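lol ok so funny story. i was supposed to be doing the assay writeup but got distracted and ended up predicting the structure for this chain instead. priorities right. anyway since i did it might as well share w the group, maybe its usefull for someone
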Amino acid sequence: MGKVTGFKEFDRKTEPYRSVKSRIQDYSEIFTDTHNVVHLQEQGARCMDCGVPFCQSNEGCPVDNLIPEWNDLVYHDKWQAALVRLHKTNNFPEFTGRVCPAPCEGSCVLGMNNPAVTIKNIEQAIVDRGFTEGWIAPHKVSHRTGKKVAVVGSGPAGLATAEELNKLGHSVTVFERADRIGGLLMYGIPNMKLGKEVVNRRVNLLKASGVEFITNVDVGKDITTEQLQKDFDALVFTTGATKARDLPVDNREAKGVHLAMEYLTKNTQILLDTGHADDSELSAKGKAVIVIGGGDTGTDCIGTALRQGAKSIVNFELMGKPPEERAENNPWPLWPLIYRVDYGHEEVAEVFGADPRQYHLMTKSFSKDAEGKVIGLNTVNVDFKDGKLIEIDGSEKIWDTQLVLLSMGFIAPEHYLSDDADIALDERGNYQATYGEYATSQTGIFTAGDCRRGQSLVVWAINEGRGVAEKVDEYLA
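and the output, tada:
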């Protein structure tokens, strides 16, 4: 695929973000407004016609994107054909092209010896052009089966489930407890990484295709599962893993210590409602901010706090700094566990002069004032020996802070829905269902996405949404 000698002729070069100076002034997407076609064709040319394209295998792409095929089509300037290939496997490439960490690039065969093909950039450019050219339109359903399906949760798994079932002719209604459709896509990922007009554009396409959406209804509280079963032939739970990992240390209840998703959701909601950033007590404006935990959510907290006008930002990591290159026990084609600089880290480094991350730090307690507000955070340096965490004597430190954001991942879905539906849970507290089958312990109730597999990627949510739709269709036949 691509140009036979392309990987020798062209170096990897990613599409640039907007300059830090420009992008931190607003909440618009960090990406540049236009795609350089010649540059992207050169990157497509680097796809090296490898014998086994690991990029589209389980190690690479959970939805099995036909990556070498659309790389080749982009190289040959056949963008509409590339879009057709892209949509064959991925319902929402405009989401994954923006927020996926690109495991496909980690398993690119070229990456064994050279920097990988810029697969993620090419994916985003294909779908962006598809919308610009008007190639993407509502799906016209030729027949209806008379069967009705309720999907609970409107994140990427729920939206993929709804689209696939609708294409098969079933009538689909999606229930969302929030005031807007999108779940994680709407409120869990900030605007600068995924513009909400991008989410709404796809939701509007689904509406025009026949999918019904109902917001502000919390199934399991506002309406029971039993009631839904009377009105629908099958139910699909795609509620995500929304129970966050907390930090049970002294003075955790101090005002100003918040879960990351509470912080991100509030700011996004206010932005959408008013057009202005959050200026409540939850705002980072003028405060020394500490983000505990890394990952994408931690980075999003960093980027949001910077835009709100934080006085300083520090990011605590329990583990050590990753290596610059793959370790011996992290071989290709596994995801490379290496040091990376994400958009938030880059922004803080430019504004404050240093990367915000501090490694090998464990939080021992918070300090609060007479009004109950957080004023400090107490840490100790740690190391790991023989798999055990060791505190280093004499390394205790007190950090000044007025806002602490806990970004330590998610442990399970909330359980009021599973309790209401009386479905079994697995040993991790997720809705119990076998991957590939998706059936819960209750007949007619299926589940997919993070609430079934645990906290994962948007692309895995799409994978499971497509998979559960197939099994629901078999059940309804």
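The first strand starts at residue 148 and ends at 152. Residues 458-476 form the longest helix (19 residues).
back to the writeup now i swear
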